[in-house]
Amino acid sequence: MKLMKEDNFNEIKKDDYNWRRGRTWSLIYYKDESLDQILKQAYLEFFYESTLNPMVFSSAQKMEKFVVNFALEILNGNQLPNSSGLLTSGGTESIIMALKAYRNKARKKNKWWRNQNEIILPESTHVAFEKGAEILGLKVRKAKLKDDYSVDIENVKKLINRRTLILVGSAPQYPHGVIDDISSLSKLALENNIGLHVDCCLGGYFLPWLEKLGIKLPLFDFRLEGVSSISLDNHKFGYSAKGVSTLVYRDIDLMAEQFFITTDWCGGLYASPSFPGTKGIAPMATAYAAIKHLGQKGFIQNAQTLMNKTRELQKIITQNGELEIIGKPVMNVFAVKSNNPNLNVFVLADQLQKKGWHVDRQQKPNSIHFILNPQHLAHIDEFEIDFNQTVEELLMRPDKFNHAAEEGNAAIYGLVAKIPKGFNRFAKEEIRKVMKDMYRKNNHEYSDRIQMPKDDFKMKLTKKVLEYF
Ligand SMILES: *Cc1c(COP(=O)(O)O)cnc(C)c1O
Question: Which CATH number fits domain 40-290: 3.40.50.2300, 3.40.50.2000, 3.40.50.1100, 3.40.640.10?
Answer without folding.
Answer: 3.40.640.10
